[in-house]
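Most newcomers find our protein records easier to grasp once they have seen one. A learned vocabulary of local backbone shapes supplies the integers on the structure line. Here is such a record, shown just as it appears in the course material:
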Amino acid sequence: MTPNLKYIEQISFGDIEFQKKIINTIKKEFPIEKEQYQENFKSKNYARLAMDVHKIKHKINIFGLNKSYEIAAEYETNLKNNSTTLSAEFDFILKTITSFLEKI
């Protein structure tokens, strides 16, 4: 599971400034979304957790993490059924993306 920028490169048609804008937007939004997710996890607010995962799921897809996207989608469904099954896997995905964003 290694994040990449291939999708961003594709949709930008090589426009470096556009790529930077997308990456900077994700760098601003992701930590906030991650923090909201963690707060809602502590309070066991399953409905909000599902919404948090839904938002983050799209960023997972942007970084070409197809298997992680599938895990997030299944986790979102689990949360809608008041189950935190796959939370550890989702936390690993969050850590992976956090690390990746720190390097780019």
Observations:
- Helices lie at 6-12, 16-42, 46-62, 66-80, 87-103.
- Residues 71 and 90 are 7 Å apart (CA to CA).
- The chain has a mean pLDDT of 96.
- Residues 16-42 form the longest helix (27 residues).
